[in-house]
């Protein structure tokens, strides 16, 4: 990837890793989502991908 594209992608992945659990909790609490095996696997896959991509981002 280009060096001009990589930093914003890392930043978005970093902040998504932080915000995704809160979003999931709100979705479960309001009834928008339910806990099923595909939902749990999808959440863990998305969370893991964001954590891996955003790992080297350092917020200033």
So how many helices?
Answer: 2
User: Residue ranges: pLDDT <50 for 5 or more in a row?
Assistant: none
For the largest beta-sheet, the strand count, sense and barrel status come to: none
Structural class: mainly alpha
Radius of gyration based on Cα positions: 14 Å
Listing every helix as H and every strand as E from the N terminus to the C terminus, the arrangement reads: HH
Q: Count of DSSP E strands?
A: 0
Q: What portion of residues belong to β-strands?
A: under 5%
Q: Based on CA inertia axes, which overall geometry fits?
A: elongated
Mean pLDDT: 91
Distance between the termini: 23 Å
Helix content bin: over 70%
Could you give the topology of this structure?
Layout: H1 6-30, H2 37-53
Question: How is this structure best described in words?
Answer:
This protein has 2 helices and no strands. It has 60 residues and is an all-alpha fold. The radius of gyration is 14 Å and the shape is elongated. The mean pLDDT is 91.
Question: What is shown here, in short?
Answer:
With 60 residues, this protein is an all-alpha fold.
């Amino acid at each position: 990837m280009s060096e001009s594209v990589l930093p914003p992608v890392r930043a978005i992945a970093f902040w998504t890793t932080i915000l995704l659990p809160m979003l999931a909790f709100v979705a479960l609490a309001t009834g928008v989502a339910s806990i099923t095996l595909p939902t749990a696997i999808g959440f863990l896959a998305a969370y893991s991908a964001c954590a891996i991509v955003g790992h080297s981002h350092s917020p200033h």
